[in-house]
Amino acid sequence: MRHKFLVLSITILIINLFLSINTFAETETESKPVLTLEQCLEMAYANSKQLQEVEKNIAIAKELIKEAEAGFLPSINYEYAGIYSNEPLSPLDPSRSKEGYSGKIALTQPLYTGGKLTNALEIAKANLDKELEQARKIKQDLTYQVKEAYYRVWLAEEMLKVAQGSYDNLSQHVNKVNKLFKVGTASKFDVLRAEVQQESIKPKIIKAENAISLAKLGLAIIIGFDKEQDFAINFDPKQFDLPENHDLSISSLLEEAYQNRAELRQLKIGAKVAELKTAIEFAAYKPTIGASLSYEGSGNEMLFDDWDKAWKLAVVVQGSIFNAGTKPKVTSATKSEELFEVQEAGLRDKILLEVKQAYQAIKENIETAKANLANIELAQESLRMTQSRFDAGIATTMDIMDAQLALDQALNGYYQSLADYITALAKLDQVVGRDQ
Prior knowledge:
- There is one protein chain.
- The protein has a single domain, classed as Outer membrane efflux proteins (OEP), CATH 1.20.1600.
- By secondary structure, the protein is α+β, with helices and mostly antiparallel strands.
- It is elongated and about 135 Å long.
- It has helices at 2-31, 37-47, 49-70, 116-182, 188-199, 202-223, 250-260, 262-282, 326-391, 397-431, and strands at residues 34-35, 75-84, 99-112, 232-233, 288-299, 308-318.
- A hairpin with an 8-residue loop joins strand 5 (288-299) and strand 6 (308-318).
- Strands 2-3-5-6 form a 4-stranded antiparallel sheet, with no helix packed on it. Strands 1-4 form a two-stranded parallel sheet.
- The chain contains 10 helices and 6 strands; from the N terminus they run αβααββαααβααββαα.
- The relative contact order is 0.12.
């Protein structure tokens, strides 16, 4: 009786220990964060040093606009001076002290500058637009990098599932061969060959596990996630069902790219800035007009009350009759405008190539994925039939292995082409300048 009680107690203890281990494992699994693509994008945007830098540049550009706007406003200046001279301050009155004081407060308002102030303000606004376009470009490039890395993690996990499924299937085959060996219908060689074939899958499993580790590390680096923290991803490829018909239009994609690409917009802004700078240089040939209103006085005492005081209103017209440096500046600014035209043509050619590459990659990967999907059905049926023939004694372990290998290749080919397809979609968004 005591022996039965002891056995029962040990059994209960083992069961509790097993349940505790399972509970701990489940807790560990549950504690691993699960990242969606949207979360990865948000983290990447928040942690990007490039985006943080361009945000600083945007803030600076906004302040430069305020500075340019201030040029239109009047300025108020003051001046106060103590004077000492070894000569009488007034030749008409030698009795006046050689010491004196003067003060002045003046308001100055530019009236006409030949377009310098207006064009300077437009340049400041254009520079802000250029920084905003740079932010768009960085964000679009970062979006593609995150998506590519995220899909790479998903692909590595699918490859591991294929390798593990192949190993499990061959494990069942090994068990079946062992049973046949025990009843004398299979040889020891058949058992050894089945076991060797099963073990040959292990390097593929290790390779797939390493690929997952590296893919996760790459994603973690891009999004600024803890590189020591493991995580899982939550991605459903069904949202990217393969279309029956490829309805993309290369002409509409190119038109969209020419309208939206940040680099092209920046180039156009640069051309506008060059044109404005040319106008500023031309303004050197024009006069400037300003008005000044001042109140000033001077006297022998420090206090302003006893001084001689006067209001003065002046309108000042200034201009340059000859300046040898003006013409080269105008010519240089004009050449800069012509340079942007050449650069725009080259950039349009680059965009054309990138859009066509992305367009063709999508078409190619759609058809490749469809072909591999059909191959999967064929390979699955071939493996089923081979296993049935093996059970009937008319197929060998090598036949099983060949059929399993064909299925693995079809599965891996499908997942690879699907990953390439959705990555190509992300690339297309990038090359046509779409904001996410």
